Automatic annotation (TrEMBL):
Belongs to the AAA ATPase family. RarA/MGS1/WRNIP1 subfamily. The lineage of its organism: Bacteria, Bacillati, Actinomycetota, Actinomycetes, Kitasatosporales. Keywords: ATP-binding, Nucleotide-binding. This is ATPase AAA. InterPro entries: AAA+_ATPase, AAA_assoc_2, AAA_ATPase_RarA/MGS1/WRNIP1, ATPase_AAA_core, DNA_pol3_clamp-load_cplx_C, MgsA_C, P-loop_NTPase. Pfam families: AAA, AAA_assoc_2, MgsA_C. Gene3D superfamilies: 1.10.8.60, 1.20.272.10, DNA polymerase III clamp loader subunits, C-terminal domain (1.10.3710.10), P-loop containing nucleotide triphosphate hydrolases (3.40.50.300).
Length: 456
């Protein structure tokens, strides 16, 4: 049986008994106007509108579309809406389970449908970044010859995960995370519309807030949790989905956490202070609270990057690169998988040796500058790359460090106002012990018995 026949059979079952489908499926938008969020893609005259022939300019004419964004924000939905609006067959494959054989079967089926019935095919390929280069190459003939309209979805940066020939032939659409307002509107629609819950139950504000926290910006997760809560409330004969009912239905306790209030800052502060105090278990507890509360993972990642320099510094020079890598990974993958990356970084930072010398050193230097201790740059350090610089004494007498043994030239670098000041005082914790040994030797070499130029 061809893959598109599976899809057709599933659609037949849904049409005969729509209530048997999950709420997330029943509430799938039928037109672009029913799509929540993604307003930057839905404006009149936008590429997506033109793709379905909606608005001036007619169809955009792209033979391939790539939808890039985090999970649960409507990539599959948009592909389905495009197929419905353009009256094309809709075939769905996942790159996790499908391979070249399945892709070729769809392409052959598309050719027969176009020749026999005059009906074009939309091939929706989810998780395309999981396809190898060779597997992606197999799509090119179908895209170039327009045997199918390919709509591919990815959660990873397509410039790194999709081959250039396919990317250059595609219309790239970047989807944005859904906001709480988007998800709230979607749930309210699901509560009242006949294809949804048909007004069978209501949803009080505290229960809605908990569902939004559970969803974490994922529409599918929001509707799945809402359906579970509604089913439980209806089974108990209750007219509303209470917070307790939601908790029981989704087996997850409501986290008291206001992302716009004091607890937002209190829990974030506790996370950083637990890392600073090397209490890895407490740090993981506060991280879990932030995740469960629906905190923006990018906010958490930013705090970890700050902690890496503020509290660890040179005691473990790998801490900052690790935190930066975690932030980049979080931005690319989003929740729920980002929780693993944040846990990885939090554990590493909490157990790293600690030093705040990067913090105290720049703090002391800034204090002197703000106090007015910012004298003129020594003449021998000034720029000498222009005509007349030597007449002014600029760069005259500068000793090039690479010309002397050890590459440390005995000369004055700081202005007279702070010459001899010591801002950096290394600890002997972790890798910084090496810097503690080195810095004294370097400072002694720089003094060099006063043989270097004095500046002025």
């Amino acid at each position: 049986m061809e893959p598109d026949l599976f899809t057709a059979a599933a659609e037949d079952r849904r049409e005969k008994d729509p209530s048997s489908s999950p709420l997330a499926v029943r509430m799938r938008p039928r037109t672009l106007d029913e799509v929540v969020g993604q307003q930057h893609l839905l404006k009149p005259g936008s590429p997506l509108r033109r793709l379905v022939g909606d608005g001036a300019g007619g169809p955009a004419g792209a033979s391939s579309v790539i939808l890039w964004g985090p999970p649960g924000i409507g990539k599959t939905t948009l592909a389905y809406v495009v197929s419905q609006a353009t009256q094309k067959r809709f075939v769905e494959l996942s790159a996790i389970t499908a391979g070249v054989k399945e892709v070729r079967a769809v392409i052959e089926g598309a050719k027969r449908a176009a020749g026999g019935y005059g009906k074009d095919t939309v091939l929706f390929l989810d998780e395309i970044h999981r396809f190898s280069k060779a597997q992606q190459d197999s799509l090119l003939p179908a895209v170039e010859n327009r045997w199918v309209t390919l709509i591919a979805a990815t959660t990873e940066n397509p410039y790194f995960s999709i081959i250039s020939p396919l990317l250059s032939r595609s219309l790239l659409l970047t989807l944005e995370p859904l906001t709480d307002e988007d998800l709230s509107a979607l749930m309210r629609r699901a509560l009242t519309e006949e294809r949804g819950l048909g007004g069978a139950v209501t949803l009080p504000q505290d229960a809605e807030a908990h569902l939004l926290r559970i969803a974490g910006g994922d529409a599918r997760r929001a509707l799945t949790a809402l359906e579970a809560g509604a089913g439980s409330a209806i089974a108990k004969g209750e007219p509303e989905i209470s917070l307790r009912t939601v908790e029981e239905a989704v087996d997850r306790a409501a986290v008291t956490y206001d992302r716009d209030g004091d607890q937002h800052y209190d829990v974030a502060s506790a996370l950083i202070k637990s890392i600073r105090g090397s209490d890895v278990d407490a740090a993981l507890h506060y991280l879990a609270r932030m995740i469960e509360a629906g905190e923006d993972p990018r906010f958490i990642a930013r705090r970890l990057m700050i902690s890496a320099s503020e509290d660890i510094g040179l005691a473990d020079p790998t801490a900052l690169p690790l935190a930066v890598a975690a932030a980049q990974a979080v931005a690319m993958i989003g929740f729920p998988e980002a929780a693993l990356t944040l846990s990885h970084a939090t554990i590493a930072l909490a157990l790293a040796p600690k030093s705040n010398t990067a913090t105290t050193a720049i703090g002391a230097a800034l204090a002197d500058v703000r106090a007015g201790l910012a004298g003129p740059v020594p003449s021998h350090l000034r720029d000498g790359h222009y005509k007349g610089a030597a007449k002014l004494g600029h760069a005259v007498g500068y000793v090039y460090p690479h010309d002397v043994p050890g590459a440390i030239a005995a000369q004055q670098y700081a202005p007279d106002t702070v010459h001899g000041k010591r801002y950096y005082e290394p600890t002997r914790y972790g890798a910084e012990a090496r810097y503690a040994d080195v810095v004294e030797k370097v400072r002694e070499r720089l003094r060099g018995g006063g043989s270097g130029p004095s500046g002025g």
